[in-house]
């Protein structure tokens, strides 16, 4: 019996040590996922995005491949769980879990591939692996998925005016690359020591140049001085079950807001997306009313309306001129999950409005860089964007649109139900902003930038850089199959 106790003591000690080690690894993985929780959701902390992936990368570089895999997956799931409440607004729980799982697996792919390359080659150039792989994935998502690269980490920098100017040079791919380069360099330096000091130094230099050049670009930007613009949003939706008296009250309130803003000097007034989905006869009555309202107030009016006829349902933006002519009609290109049964449009609309060339788009359209580039190529000075958000994604929806403006050198007016009213310029400066609200709604009056559209390179360099990263990413995934841990 004493011999059994003697033999089992070391085993018991070893088991206790292993358990403690496993628990410490779990704690480390959760700690690594916590900063990701605050940057991977629809309202990310922009400053934290620069270092949030660092703990995960450092753990992966200092652990065995198996431990790196499960710790990365646990940290990624914790970080991505910040999207659960928002995703539940759009899809059932099984689909939410599937989306989070796929996104977590992408994190696993990028981190393990980065780990393999760093440990295999032990060279400063491997600092590029992590940003190149993420830009490659982001580019593929933007091109292939119906929701594009919604929530890309690059958009977390929409309020960081200095670094945001990178988007004018190389679009979201360039912005994401710069953002991912910082944690990559820090992780290599902390895990690999002095051998990676030159790579870290080059990263610091690149970031310093990006911030300094961006700050200089914004400092020289002209201020607002153009015509006054009014924005209106009433959160109340006119649906099939809305009592006629209530629907009439909402339309009347919009009309009162338009008259009030025009009376304060607004040359144009923007209303939100899909205020109601109407039959052709009902839509014609709304058209007649706002046609007369534009003529009576002398203001351009843009509103979002849904029309359902025998061919199907369409999400439209109507633009009414002060001369009372028939409105210009724009049909939404990119449909949100709740409206995937609507018919998608394909035409663009650029019109002289209040002395400026103004383009029309609807909400999710502005989440896609090619559509934004098309309006940039058409020399639009301002984009008018009726929108409808879901409250939780109000910041992300507005700021993705702001980034389109920086990429293509135009101002953006965005009026969102269940979101925010936003006026931004071609440099990403939010000139005015106000939250939407239920009846009687919210209004915003602000001057537009007086400058013409600003020249940028993002229209051609952004896609070129993104697809170059896709090609490099495929090469990197095939490289470094045999790895050795840090010593």
Question: How do the strands and helices of this protein lay out in sequence?
Answer:
Blueprint: H1 2-37, H2 54-62, H3 65-80, H4 84-90, H5 93-121, H6 129-144, H7 161-164, H8 166-192, H9 197-219, E1 224-233, H10 244-263, E2 268-270, E3 277-278, H11 280-297, E4 300-309, E5 312-320, E6 328-331, E7 350-353, E8 356-360, H12 369-377, E9 382-388, H13 394-408, E10 411-417, E11 420-424, E12 430-435, E13 442-449, H14 458-478
Parallel strand pairs: 1-2, 2-4, 3-4, 8-9, 9-10
Antiparallel strand pairs: 1-13, 4-5, 5-6, 7-8, 10-11, 11-12
Helix pairs in contact: 1-2, 1-3, 2-3, 2-5, 2-8, 3-5, 5-6, 6-8, 6-14, 8-9, 8-13, 8-14, 12-13
Can you summarize this structure?
With 487 residues, this protein is an alpha/beta fold. The chain has helices at residues 2-37, 54-62, 65-80, 84-90, 93-121, 129-144, 161-164, 166-192, 197-219, 244-263, 280-297, 369-377, 394-408, 458-478; strands at 224-233, 268-270, 277-278, 300-309, 312-320, 328-331, 350-353, 356-360, 382-388, 411-417, 420-424, 430-435, 442-449.
Cα Rg: 26 Å
Unreliable segments (pLDDT under 50, ≥5 consecutive)?
A: 483-487
**How confident overall, as mean pLDDT?**
94
Mass-distribution shape: elongated
Main sheet overview? 7 strands, mixed
> Based on helices, strands and strand pairing, what is the structural class?
alpha/beta
Content of β-strand: 15-25%
- Number of strand elements: 13
């Amino acid at each position: 019996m004493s011999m059994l106790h003697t033999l089992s003591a070391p085993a018991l000690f070893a088991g206790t040590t292993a358990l403690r080690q496993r628990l410490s690894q779990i704690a480390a993985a959760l700690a690594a996922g916590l900063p990701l929780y605050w940057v991977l959701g629809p309202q990310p902390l922009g400053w934290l995005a620069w270092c949030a992936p660092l703990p995960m990368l450092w753990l992966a570089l200092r652990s065995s491949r198996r431990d790196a895999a499960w710790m990365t997956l646990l940290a990624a799931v914790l970080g991505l769980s910040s999207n659960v409440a928002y995703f539940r607004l759009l899809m059932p729980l099984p689909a939410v879990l599937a989306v989070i799982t796929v996104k977590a697996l992408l994190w696993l792919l990028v981190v393990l591939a980065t780990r393999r390359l760093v440990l295999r080659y032990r060279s400063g150039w491997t600092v590029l692996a992590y940003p190149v792989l993420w830009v490659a994935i982001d580019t593929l998502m933007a091109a292939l998925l119906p929701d594009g690269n919604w929530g890309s980490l690059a958009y977390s920098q929409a309020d960081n005016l200095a670094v945001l100017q990178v988007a004018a040079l190389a679009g979201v791919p360039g912005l994401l690359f710069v953002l991912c380069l910082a944690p990559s360099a820090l992780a290599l330096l902390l895990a690999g020591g002095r051998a990676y000091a030159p790579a870290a130094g080059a990263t610091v230099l690149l970031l310093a140049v990006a911030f300094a050049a961006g700050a200089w670009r914004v400092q020289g930007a002209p201020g607002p001085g153009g015509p006054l613009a009014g924005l209106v949003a009433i959160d109340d939706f006119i649906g099939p079950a809305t009592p006629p008296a209530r629907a009439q009250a909402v339309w009347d309130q919009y009309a009162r807001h338009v008259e009030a803003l025009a009376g304060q000097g607004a040359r144009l007034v923007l209303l939100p997306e899909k205020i109601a989905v109407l039959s052709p006869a009902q839509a014609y009555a709304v058209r007649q009313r706002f046609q007369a309202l534009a003529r009576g107030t002398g203001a351009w009016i843009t509103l979002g309306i849904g029309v359902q006829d025998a061919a199907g349902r369409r999400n439209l933006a109507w633009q009414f001129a002060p001369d009372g002519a028939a409105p210009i009609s724009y049909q939404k290109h990119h449909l949100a999950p709740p409206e995937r049964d609507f018919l998608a449009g394909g035409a663009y609309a650029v019109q002289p409005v209040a002395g400026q060339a103004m383009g029309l788009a609807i909400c999710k359209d502005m989440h896609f860089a090619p559509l934004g580039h098309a309006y940039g190529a058409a020399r639009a000075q301002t984009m008018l964007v009726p929108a409808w958000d879901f409250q939780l994604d109000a910041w992300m929806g507005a700021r993705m649109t702001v980034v389109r403006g920086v990429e293509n050198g135009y101002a953006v007016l965005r009026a969102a139900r269940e979101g925010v009213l936003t006026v931004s310029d071609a440099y990403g400066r939010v000139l005015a902003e106000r939250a939407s609200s239920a009846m009687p709604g919210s209004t915003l009056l602000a001057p537009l930038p007086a400058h013409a559209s600003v020249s940028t390179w993002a229209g051609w360099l952004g896609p070129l850089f993104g697809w170059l990263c896709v090609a490099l990413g495929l090469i990197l995934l095939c490289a470094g199959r045999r790895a050795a841990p840090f010593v």
